[in-house]
Every structure is written in structure tokens, then in C-alpha cells.
Amino acid sequence: MCVDFTDLNKACPKDSFPLPRIDQLVDATAGHELLSFMDAYSGYNQIRMNKADEEKTLFTTDQGLYCYKVMPFGLKNAGATYQRLVNRMFARQIGKNMEVYVDDMLTKSTTAEKHTEDLKETFDVLRKYQMKLNPSKCVFGVPSGRFLGFQVHQRGIEVNPEKIKALEGMASPRTLKDVQRLTGCLASLNRFIAKSTDKCAPFFKAIKKGKGLEWSTECEEAFQKLKEYLGRAPILSKPVVGETLYLYLSVTERKPDTRRQKK
């Protein structure tokens, strides 16, 4: 069953509580020896509605009128409400041995020996707040796994293989929407593409022209080169404390560029 909360959402003031930045969470996860991935079971439904607001979720069926006693999916501020809750629940762990993005939770340990202790701390909090997990979406004590669309492990961050497969199987764009879909896909892989602005420039030129699509030879060559490049995308690793890093600067009439690397 699906309830349309469009009118209710229009009447609700926006809750501006921010969601964490995905790139920061992923960066903070890489480099740990053992990871445990957890997912809340219908997480939104585990939050009780304010008694006074229950009737605002009223919906009609052939058997009568009903309203939600728990927070349903589809409410404007459900995501912000849930993130605020988990931030408070795991305040002592976030950034230390845990990262949380809405109902995606991850416990991380720098050593395998410490992982049981870190998990116990997480489970103690879950029991305290009576939050239930979805066992079919939980994986415990593994060296690597997928988190927020990226493959994370002790060595660093890798591009999601499914995204690479989708790109490799993509036919050459024929419409403006096809190009926009391509640039959207590449935007999610941007951090793995060196000089991404230059490599993707032909696509943005094609979009800027507006009227119809002129998929030039330059566009096709750039498209095929990107497919080949991402097939061997680099592993992004965190800097090691105490290790010497070198910052290279390159300035041209068009733009400045920087690169940080090991010796």
C-alpha cells in the first residue's frame, strides 16, 4: 500500500537537519582491518509518531479510515528525523569506531582483535533504544564491503564494480537525455577520474549547445577512453600519518591544477 503525502508535505516546515557528506563517511571508513555492515529493519517505522500528529497521516481505504502510529516512508522530514536520532544514539561512536548514514550503519575496527569489543558497544546502544536490524542486509566481521555506493577495505576505496559494468554496457548517447544520464553517472565516479573536467569536456559542450544532440567524433573518442580508463580505475588510499607527501602545482592560462602524491 502506498499513501500520497504530497499535500501534507507542502504544509510541513522543512527540517534542515543536515545529512552527513557521503565522501567524508567513505573516507573515514577506508583503512580499517575489519568492518561490519548493518541495516535497520524498516528504520522509519521504528520511530513513534507524536500522538497529536497521528491524524495528519490519515488515509482512506474501503474498510475505513486509518492513520500511522509510527513514522511512515514518504514524509518530507523523515530522513532528517531519522538522521538526528542515529546521531544522538551513536554520538560517542561516530567518527571513532562507527559511521552512520540514515539507516546504513557501519562498525569499523583498526585491528581484528578490537572488533568484537566495538560491535558489543554498538549492540549495547541498539538494545538501549530497542532498534531492530534486518538480518538479511547485515554482514559482520569482513575485510571489505560496499558502503554508500563504494567498495571499502583496508587498502582504501575502490569504485563500485556495478557502476563500471553499467557504464561499459552503455551505448553511445543518441539524445540529450542520454548525455545527461552519462554525465550523472560520471559525476558519481568523479573522484576516481584524474583530470575529469578535461576528460568530460566534450560531453558538457554537447549539452550546452541545447538544440538537439550533435554526438561528434570527439565525444565518441572521449566516451570510449573513459570506459577504458575506468576499467582500471585506481584504488584511493588514505595518507599514512608521518609519511611524506608532495603537493604539485600546475598553473596555466585556463586554470590551476594540483596533485598530491607519495614520493
UniProtKB/TrEMBL annotation:
Leader sequence segment: none
The protein's name: Reverse transcriptase domain-containing protein
Family annotation (PANTHER family): REVERSE TRANSCRIPTASE DOMAIN-CONTAINING PROTEIN (PTHR24559:SF444), TRANSPOSON TY3-I GAG-POL POLYPROTEIN (PTHR24559)
Domain of life: Eukaryota
Record-annotated Reverse transcriptase domain positions: 1-152
